[in-house]
Amino acid sequence: MHTQPNNSDSLIVGVAETLYGINAHWVREVVRLPEISPMQDAPLFIVGVINLRGRVVPVLDLNNRLGHISQEKHRLSDAVVVLERGDVVLGLLVNEVREIVTLDQNNQEPAPLFEEFTDSHDLAARRYRFVQGVAKIDDSLIMLLSMEHLLHVHPSDWVAENTGEEEKEPAELLTARRRFNPEGDATTRTVFQQRAKRLRQRLDQHQQEETVSLAIVRLHDEMLGIDLRHISGFAKVIKVTPIPCCPPHIVGSMNLRGDVLVLVDLRQVLNLSTTGPEQTMGKAVVIPLGQQEVGVLVHDVVDVIHIRPTEIAASPVAASSLRGEHLQGAMPYDKKMLGILNIQAILANPALLVNEEI
Fold this sequence. Notes:
Layout lengths: L8 E7 L2 E6 L3 E6 L13 E7 L2 E7 H4 L13 E7 L2 E7 L1 E7 L5 E3 L12 H6 L2 E7 L2 E6 L1 H5 L19 H7 L8 H15 L4 H6 L1 E8 L2 E6 L5 E4 L13 E7 L2 E6 L18 E7 L2 E7 L1 E8 L19 E7 L2 E6 L1 H6 L10
Parallel strand pairs: 2-11, 5-7, 13-21, 16-18
Antiparallel strand pairs: 1-2, 1-8, 3-6, 4-5, 6-7, 9-10, 10-11, 12-13, 12-19, 14-17, 15-16, 17-18, 20-21
């Protein structure tokens, strides 16, 4: 996912139930967490490195960098936010990527000054400086991160050598704790490896110009692709307000940065099951439609991939249980054929009553 922010844009990410804002000018792209290779002699908060189309990129565990314990297991839903500033390219390991927002200066406050700033090497003093401000969006508080301070490495951040002095945690345990440790079985590990393989592939300029970017979303057990060119963002579904006298696929509306976002459940339209163990669809794919935006409900945003048009099959037959008119093509994904939704045509269908009646 590539970004084109303005001066006040921030990428909102979630780490351990806390929301953080990253200056979107630093964001090069966002990728779903691939397999990470270990890296010796690195700061404690570096999980390892990935091969990003020929460039070795270290991956920083944001939760650990902020002074918390590293997560024990890495999940398929985790993501790496790739930052670029000058010659520095760095990946941030986060639990979720929400959306890019334009922060109102009136809704921001500087981080509270608990003590006078000094050059002390005290860990607490350095940890506090990672947050440079707090923004308020709806009912959420966003911790605004200082990228410069996150990248500043103090000697105590490195694996401690055996100096003979008593240590709180032996260096070998610290090193083991920060290794890539995927959650799940062998199938899950294969997905991590496939992601890493895709990221290693180099693209020449001609291939880059022809690359199609797709968001892979999940509805129950059905995986579907949506062209990123038709997506303006992703949002967490909160405080849904019902809309009276609407067809059942119109779930309601929610507040998205001060605008009303109509939420649509496409499962009935797509002839997919509306029953199953997982009923709550907690994420919305935001689709521009005329002068408004529509939120298409999904259970999860699984991946963002970049493929060449030649990899997309013209005929969507057997790609999924969907009818052909709902698809613009199909592509191989995780050893299966995945249908690519013709999302604009689906939402523009007058039978949905999205444009005129809502």
